[in-house]
Amino acid sequence: xxxxxxxxxxxxxxxxxxxxxxxxxxxxxxxxxxxxxxxxxxxxxxxxxxxxxxxxxxxxxxxxxxxxxxxxxxxxxxxxxxxxxxxxxxxxxxxxxxxxxxxxxxxxxxxxxxxxxxxxxxxxxxxxxxxxxxxx
Amino acid sequence: xxxxxxxxxxxxxxxxxxxxxxxxxxxxxxxxxxxxxxxxxxxxxxxxxxxxxxxxxxxxxxxxxxxxxxxxxxxxxxxxxxxxxxxxxxxxxxxxxxxxxxxxxxxxxxxxxxxxxxxxxxxxxxxxxxxxxxxxxxxxxxxxxxxxxxxxxxxxxxxxxxxxxxxxxxxxxxxxxxxxxxxxx
Lengths: 136, 185
Description:
- By secondary structure, chain A is an alpha+beta fold.
- Chain A is 25% helix and 35% strand.
- Chain A has helices spanning 83-87, 96-124; strands at residues 21-26, 31-39, 45-56, 59-70, 75-80, 92-93.
- In chain A, strands 5-1-2-3-4-6 form a six-stranded mixed sheet.
- The model of chain A has no long low-confidence stretch (mean pLDDT 88).
- By secondary structure, chain B is of the alpha+beta class.
- A five-stranded antiparallel sheet of chain B has the order 4-3-2-1-5.
- In chain B, α3 crosses α4 (108-115), α3 (99-105) runs parallel beside α5 and α4 runs antiparallel to α5 (121-130).
- Chain B is rod-shaped, with a radius of gyration of 32 Å.
- Classes of the chains: A alpha+beta, B alpha+beta.
- Chain A binds chain B through residues 26-28, 37-40, 44-46, 48, 65-71, 73-74, 132-133, and chain B through 1-4, 6-7, 20-22, 36, 57-58, 60-67, 69-70.
- β4 of chain A pairs antiparallel with β5 of chain B, so a sheet runs across the interface.
């Protein structure tokens, strides 16, 4: 791709993504959108003017977060945001309080379903482990 | 700049740390190291009220810092760049000038020793200008004598009413001399 020295032994370098608006997905399922200012060999990221975007169904809400220093091991993936396409989203933006409420309801619904599933599997002899991370 | 350097620059600022288990800690960043281990002061967590906190780097999910840190970092980098440039250029400039000019202006006691070195007639003349040991009438003049065409043996008489224009001529003459000398070398 570029002729700059590779910073880490993956096929792609992050230098091309510098000063670009990125969507970063963390292991806990959070989606952070921000401008990548710097990175290092561990893929620790510095994002500026970032916001946390919460998606529930066809709605989404943003929370302003400022400057993030994300530890590399918590990042699942990151992708460049096309600023033209970004404006024409099929989703509707809602205020923060509403999206948090929706998120809470979704979490409760999921918890109920999981409990039922766990119970049924347990009856069949299976044990279900609740992983507290890698919720993406 | 690197993320860890940014963290180092954020020392003293209030930050928010979220750990892998979801716990958040607020506080003023006291120290950090290359493993991202950090220590916080005051604030603590609103839940626990801790005056001091040490967090091991590998338990951190992310940190949030105020925007001011990024601005501060940019300023520091600009300042460092300016200082580096100015110091380098100034130093080289001073080295380029013939040492005699600086020696001539520094004072009588210093130039006394320097005169013996024989750097060239007009430079010695400059030394004599400032040297208090030399008699007034023997002092070289800022006003160049019309009779002395040869610069290396000139005795320039000091004209007490020398105006700015004369000084300018003198300085221009000096510069011309310097160019000649550097070309000769």
